[in-house]
Amino acid sequence: MDTHALAGRVAIVTGGGRGMGREMTLALARAGVRVIATAAAQSGEIERVAFDAQAECDDERVLPMLADASNPADAERLVATALSRWGRLDILINNAGRGMKYVSERFLTEPTRFWEVDPDTWRMVIDTNVNGPFLMARAAVPHMLAGGWGRIVNISMNHDTMRRRGFSPYGPSKAALESETAIWAQDLEGSGITVNALLPGGATDTGMIPTGLPQDARATLLAPDIVVPPLLWLVSPEADGITGRRLVANQWSCEDPAKALEDAGWSRR
Question: Which residues are part of the catalytic machinery?
Answer without folding.
Answer: 170
